[in-house]
Amino acid sequence: MSTSIMSRTTGLTAARAAHSQRRGPACASSPEVFQDVLVEDPPRGAMTRADRDRQTRLVGQARAICEACPLRTACLYDAVVRHDVAGFVAGTTVRQRNEIRRRLGIVVENEDLDTLAGVIGGTRQIDHDEVLRLRRANPDETLEQLAHRLGCSLSTVKRHLRRERQEPTVRRTVTRPMPVQVLQVTAAVVSGSATARRAA
């Protein structure tokens, strides 16, 4: 292929990717597929033949949409490495993503969005890391506001922040896999799932 054709092709691919990123992921334009209960949260028990056929069709559509999406790699990486998301994401199911994480040795903790949003309160033990995380997430808030979000006293927040200044918490370094590693393991898991389905 000549250099001018390659540069035009590369330019077109980059332009398509940029256009797609402006519009968002391909799944956003197909909520009827991705938000269907048979795709997003399939039932655990027995399904009727009609539901099973419909689920197979919808998952096939979802997988095709994901495969064609230029954001698939980034979406897959985030769904496997950074966030524990529900539903069908980047061509994978929740079960497949859990298997990918297991094979890569990744542990993704559920995010405590209630605490960050200030929903949790009442009488409970306040976790030191929770105070620090909330402080980092809301650096412009007063300590009184943080105490209110945590449902504790101002003195409790001050005590935790003082403790951190005196004895800083040692942060462990998390080594994340490279995107290519996630893609390789995903290919093995998804192909293994397809083989198991055909055998059944």
Automatic annotation (TrEMBL):
PROSITE patterns: 4FE4S_WBL
Region Disordered, residue ranges: 1-28
Highest taxon of source: Bacteria
Domain annotation 4Fe-4S Wbl-type: ranges: 26-99
A GO term, aspect molecular function: DNA-binding transcription factor activity
Composition skew (Polar residues), residue ranges: 1-12
Example of a GO biological process term: DNA-templated transcription initiation
Protein name per Swiss-Prot or TrEMBL: Sigma-70, region 4
Organism name: Microlunatus sagamiharensis
